[in-house]
UniProtKB/TrEMBL annotation:
Alphabetical list of InterPro entries matching this protein: TPM_dom (IPR007621)
Entry's transmembrane regions: 217-239
Protein name according to UniProt: YgcG family protein
Keywords for this protein: Membrane, Transmembrane, Transmembrane helix
Domain TPM: 58-183
Coiled-coil regions listed in the entry: none
NCBIfam families in alphabetical order: photo_II_Psb32
């Protein structure tokens, strides 16, 4: 009898230890999966230095562009600088520092690279954060006669955003922006932003049987996953209540 009681107490201790360990692992997994981290955030002073006249036209820290795209854009912007003196630079980053905005980042980087009005005069800086797909443009006074603030904003928010909304097509977005900026700063007519097809599809407004089946299957899977999470936790707390 004593031996049986000892074994029973031993099993209860083992079950309690295993349950506690499983619950701890569950909480740890929840923490790592759902807690955001600032890893990889980019600050202005972590950016490389660039000076007026330096042939660095693309800094793709977020690795959004292919090598072919970077080379093509660098060639076009380098030719533009030689022919007109206007220097355009594209910068991509992956994640801003906490509390930073893309506009503030672009302004600070512009002032870091080109600290005086003379340095800033013929400069255009376009910065994209690929986590939020937000874009900001800074321009010097010397290019505003050709590239107004309104037009620069259109390049960022229209020319680039159309390809980005269509599946994050970064290569196309930067190629389109480069083409438009080169045309405008070369004194050519502004080609304008891309035309967006707003055609409304009137057919097929009702879900097909296959789509309904897929949705039902998805709902079942979600419910099963929730139950698989809730039931073990509820069992653990019930067990603790019984033991106390």
């Amino acid at each position: 009898m004593v031996k049986c009681l000892s074994q029973l107490v031993g099993w209860r201790t083992l079950v309690r230890a295993v349950s506690t360990l499983a619950f701890g692992l569950f909480l740890t997994l929840q923490f790592w999966v759902f807690t955001p981290t600032p890893a990889g955030a980019t600050g202005v002073y972590s950016m490389p230095n660039v000076a007026v006249g330096e042939p660095t036209w693309v800094i793709d820290q977020a690795e959004t562009m292919s090598r072919v795209t970077r080379n093509q854009i660098s060639g076009e912007l380098g030719k533009l600088a030689k022919q007109t003196g206007a220097e355009v630079r594209f910068v991509t980053i992956h994640r801003l520092d906490y509390g930073e905005t893309i506009e503030n980042f672009a302004q600070k980087l512009f002032q870091k690279w080109f600290p005086t009005p003379e340095d800033q005069a013929n400069q255009v800086l376009l910065v994209l954060d690929n986590v939020t797909n937000t874009i900001a443009v800074q321009t010097g006074d010397g290019v505003k006669a050709l590239l107004s603030d309104q037009m620069a904003e259109s390049v960022a928010q229209e020319t680039m955003m159309v390809p980005l909304r269509d599946g994050n097509k970064y290569n196309q977005a930067f190629l389109d922006a480069s083409e438009r900026l080169v045309a405008v700063l070369s004194g050519q007519p502004d080609p304008g932003p891309p035309v967006v097809d707003d055609t409304v599809q009137t057919e097929g407004t009702f879900a097909r049987a296959e789509e309904t089946d897929d949705r039902s299957a998805t709902i079942v899977v979600v419910v099963l996953l929730v139950l698989a999470t809730v039931i073990p936790m509820a069992t653990y707390y019930l067990y603790q209540a019984i033991q106390s």
